[in-house]
Amino acid sequence: MIVHVLPGDSLSAQFAEADIAGDIVVFRECLVVGDISGEDLDEFWQLRANFLMLEYGGDPIDYQEGVVYEIERLLELGAGDEVNLWFEYELFCQSNMWFCLDLLKASETEVFRVAPKTPSPDNPWEGFATHNSSDLAVCLDERTKMSPEDRETGVQLWQAFRERDSERLRKLGEFRSPAFPFLKEVCDAAAEIETRPTEIVAELKASGHSDIESIFPEFQKRAGVYGLGDLQVERLLEQL
Description:
The chain has helices spanning 12-18, 41-56, 60-71, 91-103, 133-141, 148-162, 166-172, 183-191, 196-206, 212-223, 230-238; strands at residues 2-6, 23-26, 82-86, 110-114, 144-145. The chain is α/β, with parallel strands linked by helices and 240 residues long. It has 2 domains: 2-184, Dna Topoisomerase Vi A Subunit, Chain: A, domain 2 (3-Layer(aba) Sandwich), CATH 3.40.1360; 196-238. A 5-stranded mixed β-sheet has the order 2-1-3-4-5, with helices on one face. Helix 4 (91-103) links the parallel strand 3 and strand 4 (110-114). Helix 7 (166-172) packs antiparallel against helix 8 and helix 10 packs across helix 11 (230-238). The longest helix is centred in the N-terminal third of the chain and has 16 residues, at 41-56. The radius of gyration is 18 Å and the shape is globular.
Protein backbone atom coordinates (compact mmCIF):
# COMPACT_ATOMS: atom_id res chain seq x y z
CA MET A 1 0.00 0.00 0.00
CA ILE A 2 1.15 3.53 -0.81
CA VAL A 3 -0.05 6.29 1.50
CA HIS A 4 0.37 10.04 1.12
CA VAL A 5 0.03 12.14 4.27
CA LEU A 6 -1.07 15.63 3.24
CA PRO A 7 -0.56 18.62 5.57
CA GLY A 8 -4.20 19.71 5.35
CA ASP A 9 -7.29 19.83 3.18
CA SER A 10 -5.97 22.82 1.22
CA LEU A 11 -3.59 20.58 -0.74
CA SER A 12 -6.18 17.92 -1.57
CA ALA A 13 -7.57 19.56 -4.73
CA GLN A 14 -4.17 20.03 -6.40
CA PHE A 15 -3.19 16.53 -5.31
CA ALA A 16 -6.27 15.01 -6.94
CA GLU A 17 -5.48 16.82 -10.20
CA ALA A 18 -1.94 15.41 -10.15
CA ASP A 19 -3.41 11.89 -10.40
CA ILE A 20 -0.79 10.44 -8.06
CA ALA A 21 -1.27 6.79 -7.17
CA GLY A 22 -1.95 5.87 -3.56
CA ASP A 23 -4.30 6.48 -0.65
CA ILE A 24 -4.53 9.86 1.07
CA VAL A 25 -4.39 10.62 4.79
CA VAL A 26 -5.15 14.27 5.58
CA PHE A 27 -3.42 15.54 8.72
CA ARG A 28 -5.99 17.97 10.18
CA GLU A 29 -4.14 19.02 13.32
CA CYS A 30 -2.01 21.93 14.57
CA LEU A 31 0.29 20.38 17.16
CA VAL A 32 2.44 23.51 17.24
CA VAL A 33 -0.06 24.96 19.75
CA GLY A 34 -1.92 23.57 22.74
CA ASP A 35 -1.58 20.61 25.05
CA ILE A 36 0.47 17.76 23.56
CA SER A 37 0.97 15.73 26.74
CA GLY A 38 -0.80 12.50 27.66
CA GLU A 39 0.36 9.21 29.10
CA ASP A 40 -0.81 7.28 26.05
CA LEU A 41 -2.31 7.94 22.63
CA ASP A 42 -5.91 7.82 23.85
CA GLU A 43 -5.25 10.45 26.50
CA PHE A 44 -3.29 12.52 24.00
CA TRP A 45 -6.27 12.63 21.61
CA GLN A 46 -8.65 13.49 24.45
CA LEU A 47 -6.47 16.40 25.55
CA ARG A 48 -6.23 17.65 21.98
CA ALA A 49 -9.99 17.45 21.48
CA ASN A 50 -10.56 19.38 24.71
CA PHE A 51 -8.04 22.05 23.74
CA LEU A 52 -9.52 22.58 20.28
CA MET A 53 -13.05 22.68 21.70
CA LEU A 54 -12.14 25.36 24.25
CA GLU A 55 -9.96 27.43 21.93
CA TYR A 56 -11.76 27.17 18.61
CA GLY A 57 -15.15 25.64 19.35
CA GLY A 58 -14.28 22.31 17.78
CA ASP A 59 -16.68 19.39 18.17
CA PRO A 60 -15.12 16.34 19.93
CA ILE A 61 -17.10 13.89 17.79
CA ASP A 62 -16.01 15.60 14.58
CA TYR A 63 -12.46 15.56 15.90
CA GLN A 64 -12.59 11.83 16.54
CA GLU A 65 -13.99 11.08 13.10
CA GLY A 66 -12.10 13.63 11.01
CA VAL A 67 -8.76 13.73 12.80
CA VAL A 68 -8.12 10.74 15.07
CA TYR A 69 -9.48 8.00 12.80
CA GLU A 70 -7.73 9.56 9.82
CA ILE A 71 -4.28 9.86 11.40
CA GLU A 72 -4.44 6.47 13.13
CA ARG A 73 -4.60 4.82 9.72
CA LEU A 74 -0.82 5.15 9.82
CA LEU A 75 -0.74 2.57 12.60
CA GLU A 76 -2.05 -0.03 10.14
CA LEU A 77 1.00 0.22 7.87
CA GLY A 78 3.76 -2.37 7.91
CA ALA A 79 6.36 -4.20 5.86
CA GLY A 80 5.83 -3.77 2.13
CA ASP A 81 3.98 -0.46 2.53
CA GLU A 82 5.31 3.03 1.93
CA VAL A 83 4.25 6.36 3.36
CA ASN A 84 5.04 9.75 1.85
CA LEU A 85 5.04 12.63 4.32
CA TRP A 86 4.07 15.81 2.44
CA PHE A 87 5.06 18.48 4.95
CA GLU A 88 6.35 22.01 4.56
CA TYR A 89 9.43 23.54 6.17
CA GLU A 90 8.07 25.66 9.04
CA LEU A 91 7.43 24.54 12.62
CA PHE A 92 3.66 24.16 12.17
CA CYS A 93 4.23 21.41 9.61
CA GLN A 94 7.43 20.05 11.11
CA SER A 95 5.89 19.35 14.51
CA ASN A 96 3.08 17.46 12.75
CA MET A 97 5.65 15.46 10.77
CA TRP A 98 7.64 14.66 13.93
CA PHE A 99 4.43 13.28 15.43
CA CYS A 100 3.88 11.07 12.37
CA LEU A 101 7.41 9.70 12.69
CA ASP A 102 6.73 8.95 16.34
CA LEU A 103 3.57 7.04 15.37
CA LEU A 104 5.59 5.08 12.81
CA LYS A 105 8.58 4.36 15.06
CA ALA A 106 7.76 0.64 15.41
CA SER A 107 6.55 0.21 11.83
CA GLU A 108 8.52 -1.57 9.11
CA THR A 109 6.96 0.59 6.40
CA GLU A 110 9.25 2.66 4.17
CA VAL A 111 9.03 6.38 4.91
CA PHE A 112 9.71 9.20 2.45
CA ARG A 113 9.82 12.96 2.98
CA VAL A 114 8.19 14.95 0.19
CA ALA A 115 9.14 18.62 0.44
CA PRO A 116 8.04 21.70 -1.51
CA LYS A 117 10.12 22.79 -4.48
CA THR A 118 13.32 24.72 -3.80
CA PRO A 119 12.08 27.64 -1.72
CA SER A 120 12.62 31.30 -2.45
CA PRO A 121 15.46 32.80 -0.39
CA ASP A 122 13.08 35.65 0.45
CA ASN A 123 10.36 33.34 1.77
CA PRO A 124 11.50 29.77 2.52
CA TRP A 125 8.29 29.13 4.49
CA GLU A 126 5.90 29.51 1.55
CA GLY A 127 5.46 25.75 1.20
CA PHE A 128 3.04 24.12 -1.24
CA ALA A 129 0.73 27.14 -1.50
CA THR A 130 1.70 28.06 -5.07
CA HIS A 131 2.21 24.50 -6.35
CA ASN A 132 0.08 23.15 -9.17
CA SER A 133 -0.45 19.49 -10.03
CA SER A 134 2.71 19.36 -12.17
CA ASP A 135 4.76 20.84 -9.34
CA LEU A 136 3.46 18.18 -6.95
CA ALA A 137 4.49 15.43 -9.36
CA VAL A 138 8.01 16.89 -9.43
CA CYS A 139 8.09 17.04 -5.63
CA LEU A 140 7.20 13.36 -5.46
CA ASP A 141 9.90 12.46 -7.98
CA GLU A 142 12.46 14.31 -5.86
CA ARG A 143 11.38 12.85 -2.52
CA THR A 144 13.91 11.71 0.07
CA LYS A 145 13.85 8.27 1.63
CA MET A 146 14.24 8.55 5.38
CA SER A 147 17.07 6.53 6.86
CA PRO A 148 16.77 4.80 10.24
CA GLU A 149 18.77 7.72 11.70
CA ASP A 150 16.36 10.24 10.13
CA ARG A 151 13.38 8.42 11.58
CA GLU A 152 14.92 8.15 15.03
CA THR A 153 15.80 11.84 14.94
CA GLY A 154 12.17 12.62 14.12
CA VAL A 155 11.06 10.64 17.17
CA GLN A 156 13.55 12.50 19.36
CA LEU A 157 12.41 15.84 17.95
CA TRP A 158 8.81 15.05 18.84
CA GLN A 159 9.76 13.99 22.37
CA ALA A 160 11.84 17.12 22.92
CA PHE A 161 9.08 19.33 21.55
CA ARG A 162 6.45 17.68 23.76
CA GLU A 163 8.63 18.21 26.81
CA ARG A 164 9.52 21.77 25.78
CA ASP A 165 13.17 20.79 26.19
CA SER A 166 14.81 23.83 24.62
CA GLU A 167 18.37 22.66 25.11
CA ARG A 168 17.69 19.30 23.48
CA LEU A 169 15.81 20.92 20.61
CA ARG A 170 18.74 23.21 19.86
CA LYS A 171 21.12 20.25 19.95
CA LEU A 172 18.90 18.20 17.62
CA GLY A 173 18.80 21.20 15.31
CA GLU A 174 22.45 20.54 14.49
CA PHE A 175 21.49 17.25 12.77
CA ARG A 176 22.08 17.40 9.04
CA SER A 177 20.07 15.39 6.53
CA PRO A 178 18.30 16.05 3.21
CA ALA A 179 15.14 14.85 4.98
CA PHE A 180 15.23 17.84 7.35
CA PRO A 181 15.88 21.13 5.50
CA PHE A 182 15.97 24.24 7.71
CA LEU A 183 16.08 22.08 10.83
CA LYS A 184 18.30 24.47 12.80
CA GLU A 185 16.00 27.43 12.17
CA VAL A 186 12.93 25.37 13.05
CA CYS A 187 14.46 23.94 16.23
CA ASP A 188 15.60 27.38 17.37
CA ALA A 189 12.03 28.58 16.89
CA ALA A 190 10.63 25.51 18.67
CA ALA A 191 12.90 26.22 21.63
CA GLU A 192 11.17 29.61 22.04
CA ILE A 193 7.61 28.59 21.17
CA GLU A 194 6.31 29.48 24.64
CA THR A 195 7.64 33.04 24.59
CA ARG A 196 8.81 34.43 21.26
CA PRO A 197 5.54 34.43 19.26
CA THR A 198 3.79 36.29 22.08
CA GLU A 199 6.67 38.76 22.32
CA ILE A 200 6.48 39.48 18.59
CA VAL A 201 2.72 40.11 18.73
CA ALA A 202 3.25 42.42 21.72
CA GLU A 203 5.97 44.31 19.85
CA LEU A 204 3.72 44.73 16.82
CA LYS A 205 0.86 45.96 18.97
CA ALA A 206 3.16 48.43 20.72
CA SER A 207 4.31 49.76 17.33
CA GLY A 208 0.76 50.73 16.40
CA HIS A 209 -0.76 47.60 14.87
CA SER A 210 -4.03 47.32 16.73
CA ASP A 211 -5.96 44.48 15.08
CA ILE A 212 -5.37 41.04 13.60
CA GLU A 213 -5.78 42.34 10.04
CA SER A 214 -2.68 44.51 10.39
CA ILE A 215 -0.74 42.32 12.83
CA PHE A 216 -0.95 39.00 10.99
CA PRO A 217 0.87 40.02 7.77
CA GLU A 218 3.65 41.61 9.82
CA PHE A 219 3.87 38.55 12.05
CA GLN A 220 4.31 36.37 8.96
CA LYS A 221 7.17 38.57 7.78
CA ARG A 222 8.97 38.45 11.11
CA ALA A 223 8.09 34.95 12.29
CA GLY A 224 7.20 32.88 9.25
CA VAL A 225 9.32 30.05 10.65
CA TYR A 226 6.50 29.28 13.11
CA GLY A 227 3.91 28.82 10.36
CA LEU A 228 1.12 30.06 12.62
CA GLY A 229 -2.20 30.89 10.99
CA ASP A 230 -4.38 33.90 11.65
CA LEU A 231 -6.44 32.04 14.27
CA GLN A 232 -3.35 31.18 16.31
CA VAL A 233 -1.96 34.72 16.07
CA GLU A 234 -5.35 36.16 17.00
CA ARG A 235 -5.36 34.04 20.17
CA LEU A 236 -1.94 35.45 21.09
CA LEU A 237 -3.28 38.96 20.58
CA GLU A 238 -6.31 38.26 22.78
CA GLN A 239 -4.08 36.97 25.57
CA LEU A 240 -2.06 40.19 25.85
